[in-house]
Amino acid sequence: MNRQMFHEVFKQISSRIDQLKQVPSPTTQFQVENVRLTDRFNTRQQIIGTLYLTATHLIFIDPEGRRETWILHSLISSVDKLPTTQQGCPLRVRTKHFLSAELTIPKERDCADLYTTLNQLKPDSYEKLYCFLYQAPNYLEKIWDPFLLATEYMRMGVPNADWKVEDGNSNFDLCDTYPPLIYVPAMATKAMLIGSSKFRSRGRLPVLTYLHPNGASITRCSQPLSGFSARCQEDEQLLQCILKANPHSTTMYIIDTRPRINAVANRAAGKGYENEDYYSNIQFKFCPIDNIHVMRGSLQKLLETCEMKNPTMNQYLSALDDSFWLQHIKAVLDAAILITRAIEIEKKNVLIHCSDGWDRTAQCCSLSSLLLCPYYRSIHGFRMLIEKEWLSFGHKFSDRCGHTTTSDSKEQSPVFLQFLEAVWQLSQIYPTAFEFNERFLISLHDHSHSCQYGNFIGNCEKDRLDLCVKERTYSFWNFILQNINDFKNPLFRPQSPYANEVLLPTITSQTLKFWLNMYHRFESALLPKENISNTLTRLVDHTTSLSDHAQLLEKRIRELRSTLDADQITLSSSATTTSNEDADDSDIEKGNQSNKICLPEFDSGLSDVDLCQTQQRDSIPSKMNRILQPPPPPPSFSDVESGFSGDYSPRGKIPLSSFILPHQSSLDMNDIPTLERIALELNSIALDWRSYNAPVHCDCSLPFDSAQRKYNCWRCGENFCTRCIERSIHLPGLYSNSLAPVCKTCARSIKSSPSFADFSALVKSKSTDFIRSQTAMKLSRSMVDQFNTLR
Q1: Model pTM?
Q2: Sorted alphabetically, which InterPro entries does this protein's record hold (predicted)?
Q3: Of the residues 232, 354, 401, 724, which is catalytic?
Q4: Is 354 a catalytic residue?
Q5: Helices then strands (H, E): number in the chain?
Q6: Is 714 part of any known ligand binding site?
Q7: What is the mean pLDDT of residues 768-781?
Q8: Using CB atoms within 10 A of its CB, is residue 141 exposed (0-12), middle (13-18) or buried (19+)?
């Protein structure tokens, strides 16, 4: 009986093991050989390579190393089968960041398997999103810089006598898509807030989002549930409180960002817009921005226009015009400028809403704030703007970007993309007014879809709190801060008039441009051969590198000059002493004799001038040797043979008090270079850098596009991508000892140098001494302050 039970258990275990063996490992790769990647603009040019399907990416690699394409699974928007050709079965993979790749697979079975697998990759829940699996590089820590909504409102001067903070939504009772803290008029009561919340769609009552220095404000909400005749006294009272919060105006605007016909149609569903008969001192305006469904169709037409093969000029321009994409961008900008004029010129409060208050409302609130406040045009300020208007106030990122299969495809729409493009259009009109560059906007768009970071997961703040994204994922803003120089605009001038004032552009049909670097970024044949912003960034970095290196060379020259001057002074004093001694001896020998007697001397064959020069030639190399190659300290003090001694006490070094220069600190005195160190300094900085317009691909085969920055290695001057660059290298040739981008090959070469270890130890010791000196200064200052306080 026991044996039978054993056999049954053994069978069950064996069966279970077989089932587990059939489950694919997360690292299992689906590999297809001889896949053809077709150039969309040159069908005759095909690259044959290997296609890999991993747990996170679809990768195409050319065996000759000419091309390498990585596609993140979460960025795939569609996979379509194309008609079979003689070369095989084509698949067209489109992504959310506008890559369209046509892959021809030799075998139909492999094509069918790949097609099925790719269509099943989209996760069906938040827990399976890429951000919860992503392993970031070592330099990126899982640290979230806390965004406090209260801090941003304090910057605007809120709370004050007219506005207060309300914590009635701390448990998301009033509105589950609003932040826990909301800001409302100081005169508003809780009854008004509760009544207005019930009267507004999704409970999104009117709350403050921006306060201008002149007292005018921007508030946001959703459409009222008014139907044809319904009214709410609490909502009417709340709007009167908002009106009275501005002492400079007796009227206010309500901006409905929908076309009037759409708003009237919503009345039949019991929603609609405010009845002007019930709201006194209100001016009502419609700004016709179409809904998410129209925008989705418009983007689809735009992408079809971008994929046209060899169109004529008339065909291309007609298709672009038929997409109405630029017309929609203009409508959004026109609404934002209208709001900006009402705030800045008319000094009137503005209440903005659309249907539910999380799409067009977010666009108009954020764009008008950007035009009104220069702070939002900085990198840090723009981050605050995104956090406040889009994340805290509940833009539906997961639904609009289609993060999971549970998201309705009809809910997807490029709302956030339109906002970013509107910002880009403004940056083209005011190129010196924005601290961030085009790459920053493109990166924002890509990572709102990629799910690589937790910032854009979920549809509101409550969703992200429930998912614990701050504890489980990496922050996109931390990535930006760690690479902030990649996203700075080289044309930004804080002192320029446009950087410190309200922007009121005039938008016409001729003003707007097609965003080539966004929609054609992967088509190198269409992009400019040399980008002005990238070229300026390269020139700034190159100038910084050379200036820093020149400072170090000047320091070395001053040290040598000071040493030579000191040597000449020593020689002069020595010669004077010798002549005085000779004169005294001759006086003793002469006695009272008045005639000079010539004594026999040893004839060296050199004149006095030649002898003096010989003494100088003999002494200068010895003095240089003392500076460039100090003798080793006694064995009892240090066992470092040469260069940087481990003992920086006076016993381990030659006294240097006579060589201290006015511009040098005590820390610089310990930095005595060896000949090897000087050679390392001279060879660690590239004087000539390669131009950005030369390479199309990095040495690792990764193609360059407008979303990726090209780096010049500061040591060899060649171009590299971000994954081939190390940024934690202290180059010996830099006076500032700052970190510099260096390619991995040069990094290995520098680190293998014997003098680099001594240089690194010196940099570390300098940093430690600097920190200690700063700490001591702070402590001394605090003690002085305490003493003065006690007195």
Answers
A1: 0.78
A2: Myotubularin, Myotubularin-like_Pase_dom, PH-GRAM_MTMR6-9, PH-like_dom_sf, Prot-tyrosine_phosphatase-like, Tyr_Pase_AS, Tyr_Pase_cat, Znf_FYVE
A3: 354
A4: yes
A5: 24, 18
A6: no
A7: 52
A8: exposed
